[in-house]
Amino acid sequence: MIQEITNFSIPESPSCMDISKEFLAIGTLDENVFLYSQPFQSKSNETILQNHLFGVIDLSINADETQIVVSSLDNYLRIWDIDDKKLISEIQCDAFANWKVRFYDSSIVVTSGEMGIINFYHVDTKERIKKIETDPIYYSCSLQIHDQLLAVGNEGGFLYLIDQNSQKKSIKPHSKPIKTLLFMDNNKILTGSEDGLIKLIDLEKFEIIQQFRGHKYGVMDFCKINEKSFVSCSTDRTIRVWDVNQIYSQKHIQSMNDKPGVISGIRYKNDQIIAAHDCGIISFYAI
Question: WD repeat boundaries (predicted)?
Answer without folding.
Answer: 49-90, 212-245
